[in-house]
Amino acid sequence: MPSRLPAATQPATTTPVPGASHDTTALLRGATASVYADTIREVADDVAARLAAVTQPFSGASRSELRALVDAVDLDGPPSGTREALREAGDLYAQHAIWFHEPTYTAHLNCPVALPAIGAETMLAAINTSVDTYDQSTVATFMERRLVEWTAGRIGFAVGAEDDAAVADGIFTSGGTQSNFQALFLAREKSRRNGTRLESMRILATAVSHFSIAKSALLLGLPDSAVVTVGTDSDGRMSPDALAQTLVDIERTGDTVIAVVATAGTTDRGCIDPLDPIADLCDAVGTWLHVDAAYGCGLLVSPRRRHLLDGIERARSVTVDFHKSFFQPVSSSALVVRERADLAPVAWHADYLNPEENAEPNQVDKSLQTTRRFDALKLWVTLRALGADGVGAMVDAVCDLAAAVHQDLATDHDFRVVGTTQLSTVLFRYQPEGLDAARADALVPQVRRVLFDSGRALVAKTVIDGRPCLKLTLLNPDATLADIRGVLELVRSAAHGLLAGEALLDADEPPCRDVHPRLARTDLHADGEQR
């Protein structure tokens, strides 16, 4: 739909401040407060109108079409004014964005966002706080620290006074990748201080751990062999027996395990590693246990499924992604550590920013980032508006929906369910009776592409045990079973159409000409003569 922003009938005129050589209405300040209010209102009205009109998660525009639209914009052209520029952005970006709130969006770990968080986003964007040092953030520093403490308490870590090095602490980050990287950096530094050489450091994880684990090892200067794969059970969860054997094998080589990474919510299957038995083994050998709960962290507030995270309180560090299962706008993640002292290696002091003798509570002392948005405000407002149980009820809703879809697919003869889930993913293949596995394999990317190009539904594809399959990632608590059945019918129709098209191409004498109502029927006799 075209932008609903009011058209600019004439170029904006300004009254310049004497001596000023720039547009003095361009920046947000007291004198432009009313312009700010009007601008935000108009943009909000435009987005609201688009939300009300959206019927599918994507416009279906092709890559070449989108590239042409972008290339047509002259970024060095004459200024058009704020209103016209936002109209243009609405028709370019919002018109062709992916709408995660649409129930037929089921592709990745993207969630619809809580309305209170959107309001908070507007507030923090306008004020533009940076929570790196106290003198830039004041109360925001204490609000973020309180949320870290709240999260630590939900995990089961001990919380207490800020001068107690043995209690939990943490920092908000840009996402799970940064949180995982910082956790492994801390584990590396702890081991390095104990005399371990980089070339002998090993990190244990499963083959389905997040790719950021291997990427972090590379960035931390560890050898190519640093990440050692631990075996899993049939559901892709880390096997404690396999972990025990791997720990023994590495000890025999003389190398050192600096961290074991358990996953609470694998990206594809949505399964949770057995945290208590893994923690037992880590405690026995004295190694760092990091739990990547980027996906499964919503269970911390689940009224009915919190027990699935039993044992997470025994981790040394935990990744949580609030912009996944807490329904927060990107970005909103955190790394939480069981003992505050473990964050010490991150600290770096500069005279112009956070001198060592400064007693102010500077967050940059424990963050890999310097300038950092006050993303914690979004979660703060969401918890105050909806309550932790309210957020948890939405987490339970998407898990319940996934369970219902699993039951549906189990009785559908066209589909084959792949594995189980403890969260909200559904893995499946279109493979009715008589369709060989190789052809079913080939259909997976083709079906996904047909649906994406239509814009009507988005599903993901992945590979499980060597076989490609389709994946539904259900993170919309307002989506219904009927909505997801509609997506599955689109999958079925796309697969039918692809197979029918192949049948026509493979036919020696395509039937279309014989039956097309606008073509004269042609009968060729054995001698080739037309009668």
Automatic annotation (TrEMBL):
Residues 1-20 have a biased composition (Low complexity). Residues 1-22 are annotated as: Disordered. Its cofactor is pyridoxal 5'-phosphate. Gene3D superfamilies: Aspartate Aminotransferase, domain 1 (3.90.1150.10), PLP-dependent transferases (1.20.1650.10), Type I PLP-dependent aspartate aminotransferase-like (Major domain) (3.40.640.10). The keyword Lyase applies. Belongs to the group II decarboxylase family. This is Pyridoxal phosphate-dependent decarboxylase family protein. The lineage of its organism: Bacteria, Bacillati, Actinomycetota, Actinomycetes, Micrococcales.
